[in-house]
Design brief:
By secondary structure, the chain is an alpha/beta fold. It is built from five helices and 14 strands. The protein has a single domain, classed as Rossmann fold (3-Layer(aba) Sandwich), CATH 3.40.50. The longest helix has 15 residues. It catalyses: N-[(R)-4-phosphopantothenoyl]-L-cysteine + H(+) = (R)-4'-phosphopantetheine + CO2; (R)-4'-phosphopantothenate + L-cysteine + CTP = N-[(R)-4-phosphopantothenoyl]-L-cysteine + CMP + diphosphate + H(+). Catalyzes two sequential steps in the biosynthesis of coenzyme A. In the first step cysteine is conjugated to 4'-phosphopantothenate to form 4-phosphopantothenoylcysteine. In the second step the latter compound is decarboxylated to form 4'-phosphopantotheine.
């Protein structure tokens, strides 16, 4: 802190942020994944740190650099992400931004699956991954403020509100990720903040601006 600046609003508070996709192995050389660059989650982790929070970022595989001022734990699979998040409780703030793969392969292969001449392609049997946000939202050591995202391609408000309830979150940041919006992988985002008390529509902003505004929103609502 500079001599002329006041205390930072999130000083002394601990935050956990998830970001990026998860990769779920099929065999040693193949995986299934979600589309996510990690840009929004990483920007939020950095913005919370700038406001003075002690931030742990649990990141899936991304190509962007680790943000400054943040402790970064790198994971691959949803179960690893869940374990890393739970191991870092208690915390004051949780912001779950990761695009977690909803399913993993039920019985992954230790060996590379080979093509069998003349045989049909191997079927992929999937099983559901743990819901990390829901786990945190209902945890005995639940953070004071639990924030989730909702990636939707239709019925953004209704789906976002249902997720707020189901996952035990205080806030759902909902966005329309239809391909024509360019949000997935892009540098801009247009979000709606869904709480028990209503919906707040934010204008089209850069992902860094969304991060700064969200960190400020968190600072005023965590108290
Ligand atoms: N999330 C999570 N763990 C999962 C799935 C989702 O922590 N296994 C979190 C995401 O990080 C996000 C929120 O839950 O904060 C909503 O994710 P989303 O994929 O939109 O919701 P789902 O509950 O998976 O529902 P669906 O994909 O069917 O819309
Ligand atoms: Ca999902």
């Amino acid at each position: 802190e500079g001599l002329l600046s006041g205390p930072k609003p999130l000083s002394g508070l601990k935050a956990i942020v998830t970001s990026g996709p998860t990769h779920e192995p099929i065999d040693p050389v193949r995986y299934i994944a979600n589309r996510s660059s990690g840009k929004q989650g990483h920007a939020i982790a950095a913005a919370l740190a700038r406001l003075g929070a002690e931030v742990t970022l649990v990141s899936g595989p991304v190509t962007i650099p680790d943000p400054h001022g943040v402790r970064v734990l790198h994971v691959e699979r949803a179960e690893e992400m869940r374990d890393a998040v739970i191991a870092n409780l208690p915390a004051d703030i949780a912001v779950m931004v990761a695009a977690v793969a909803d399913w993993r392969v039920a019985s992954g292969s230790d060996q590379k699956i080979k093509k069998q001449p003349g045989e049909a392609p191997p079927p992929l049997l999937l099983t559901e991954n743990p819901d990390i946000l829901k786990t945190v939202g209902h945890h005995a050591q639940r953070p004071r403020l639990v924030v989730g995202f909702a990636a939707e391609t239709q019925d953004v408000d209704a789906n976002g509100r249902a997720k707020l309830e189901r996952k035990g979150a205080d806030l759902i940041v909902a966005n329309d990720v239809s391909p024509e919006t360019g949000i997935m992988g892009g540098d801009r985002n247009r979000v709606r903040l869904i709480t028990k008390s209503g919906v707040e529509d934010w204008p089209d902003l850069s992902k860094d601006e969304v991060a700064d505004r969200l960190a400020a929103w968190i600072a005023t609502h965590v108290q």
